[in-house]
Design a protein that fits this description.
alpha+beta; conserved putative lor/sdh protein from methanococcus maripaludis s2 fold; Helix Hairpins; 6-stranded antiparallel barrel; 4-stranded antiparallel beta sheet; 22 strands
Length: 407
C-alpha cells in the first residue's frame, strides 16, 4: 500500500495529538487527587480523626531561664590599663673601694630600713683613722706649746722687751696650728665615715632582689651595676591611664576633696587583687593616645601587687542608688538598639526596647524600659521572637516578678 507525501504527514500528526491529549488528562487527574487528599487531611486534623490526631497541635513552649529585674546600687567606673610601680626603687651601691667580705641577706628577702646587708673590708680605713688620730695628737701638742709662747710674748710685748713683729708672728702661728688641728679632725671624721660606709645598710624597707656581686670581689664606688636592688612594697602604687574625655569629672571630684576608690584587677579581670585610692594625676595629656596617667596608692599589706605587674585599674567615680538592675546576659542587640525579652503574665515573651546605664560586673542598669520585678530572659533567647510561649526552667525566688500574677 502506497501513500502520497501529504498523506504520510497527516498520518504522523495524528498520534502526536493523541499523546498530548493523554498527558493533559493525567495532569488534571493528578491535580484533582492532590486537592482531595489535602482537603481530607485538613478535615482529619480538625476533627481528630484516625491518623490525624497531632496534625494541628500548638507548637511546644521554648524552655528558658529568666530572672526578675531588681532595685539596687551600681557604681560608675572608669577603667584603664596600668602597671604596678613602687614608690621607691633603690640600687644599693658601695661608697668605698675594697673587697666584699660578707653578705648578710638572702635573695628575695624582705629587709627593713637600716638592716645590715653587706660588709666591705674596713681595715684600710681603720689604718687611716689611726694615722689621722696620731697626727692630731702631735698637732694638738704643737698648738698647746704655741699658745704658751703666745702668752709669754704678749707679756714681753707690753714691756717692750721683744719686737712687735715677733709677737705677731707667734699669734699667727697659733692660728695656723689651730687650722692644722681642725684639718686633722676632718681626716679623722672622714676615716670614721669610710668605716661606716664599709658596712652597707638598707636605705629603705622592701624586697631585695638577686645578688649582683658575690663575696670576694673588689667593689668600687664608681661601679654602675651596684650590689643589689630594693623595691618598696608597702605602700605601692599603680600608674594607669584613662581617656581624656573622662578627665573632667575626675578633676571635679579631686577639687571637692573626694577620696576616689581604685580597684586593681588581674589581667583577665576575674579577680580583685587590692583596693586603694587615687593619689594624683599627671600634668598633661598624651597627644598620641589621648589619655592621661593617674597614680593610685595601695597599702599592699599582703604583697598581692608585685612591681611592674600588669593590672587593670578601676576608678569608682560615683555610686548610683536605687537603679533597676538586670544581668548583662539578658541584653540583646539589634539595629534598633538594645532590647530584652520580657516574660508576660501569659508566659509569652515580648520584645522590650531599653536604654542602658552603667555596667558593673555581671549586671547593667536599665535607665528606661524596665521596672523592678519585670521578668526577663537570660538564657535560651536564641529561639525566641515576639509572641512565643516559654517555659521557665528556673522556678526559684528569682522568678517572683510581675509575670507570676498570671498564674
Amino acid at each position: 500500500m502506497t501513500f502520497r507525501q501529504g498523506e504520510k504527514d497527516v498520518w504522523k500528526r495524528v498520534p502526536a495529538r493523541d499523546m498530548l491529549r493523554r498527558w493533559w488528562v493525567w495532569l488534571v487527574a493528578a491535580a484533582l487527587v492532590g486537592i482531595v487528599a489535602y482537603s481530607q487531611l485538613g478535615k482529619g486534623g480538625k476533627t481528630g480523626g484516625p491518623g490525624r490526631k497531632g496534625a494541628n497541635l500548638a507548637p511546644a513552649s521554648v524552655p528558658v531561664t529568666a530572672t526578675a529585674a531588681r532595685k539596687g546600687d551600681i557604681g560608675i567606673w572608669l577603667t584603664g590599663l596600668g602597671a604596678v610601680t613602687p614608690v621607691r626603687t633603690v640600687t644599693v651601691k658601695s661608697r668605698v673601694d675594697g673587697e666584699l667580705m660578707r653578705v648578710y641577706y638572702k635573695e628575695g628577702q624582705i629587709v627593713k630600713q637600716g638592716q645590715l646587708l653587706v660588709e666591705i673590708d674596713p681595715r684600710p680605713y681603720q689604718a687611716q683613722l689611726t694615722q689621722a688620730q696620731g697626727q692630731m695628737i702631735r698637732d694638738k701638742a704643737l698648738l698647746a706649746n704655741a699658745r704658751v709662747d703666745l702668752k709669754r710674748y704678749q707679756v714681753l710685748s707690753r714691756q717692750d722687751s721683744i719686737a712687735e713683729q715677733q709677737y705677731a708672728t707667734q699669734k699667727f702661728l697659733v692660728r695656723q696650728l689651730e687650722g692644722t688641728v681642725k684639718l686633722d679632725q676632718g681626716q679623722i671624721d672622714n676615716a670614721k665615715l669610710q668605716i661606716i660606709y664599709s658596712r652597707i645598710t638598707a636605705p629603705v624597707s622592701g624586697r631585695i632582689g638577686l645578688r649582683l656581686v658575690d663575696p670576694g670581689n673588689i667593689v668600687h664606688a664608681t661601679d654602675t651595676t651596684g650590689l643589689a636592688v630594693i623595691t618598696q612594697l608597702e605602700p605601692i602604687t599603680v600608674i594607669f591611664t584613662i581617656a581624656e574625655d573622662s578627665l573632667p569629672p575626675v578633676l571635679d571630684k579631686l577639687r571637692a576633696g573626694a577620696r576616689l576608690p581604685v580597684d586593681a584587677l588581674n589581667r583577665e579581670q576575674t579577680r580583685k587583687l587590692a583596693t586603694g585610692s587615687l593619689l594624683t594625676l599627671d600634668n598633661q595629656i598624651d597627644p598620641n593616645s589621648g589619655t592621661v596617667k593617674l597614680r593610685a596608692e595601695f597599702a599592699n599589706k599582703d604583697h598581692a601587687l608585685f612591681p611592674n605587674q600588669f593590672v587593670n585599674a578601676r576608678l569608682l567615680l560615683e555610686t548610683r542608688h536605687g537603679a533597676t538592675l538586670v544581668p548583662t546576659a539578658a541584653i540583646q542587640r539589634s539595629t534598633q538598639g538594645p532590647y530584652v525579652y520580657l516574660v508576660e503574665p501569659d508566659r509569652k515573651v515580648a520584645v522590650r526596647q531599653v536604654r542602658l546605664g552603667p555596667t558593673e560586673g555581671d549586671h547593667v542598669a536599665i535607665d528606661q524600659g524596665l521596672a523592678p520585678g519585670d521578668l526577663v530572659v537570660v538564657e535560651g533567647s536564641e529561639r525566641l521572637r515576639a509572641g512565643v510561649k516559654v517555659e521557665l526552667k528556673n522556678q526559684g525566688p528569682e522568678n517572683s516578678g510581675k509575670s507570676r500574677k498570671g498564674k
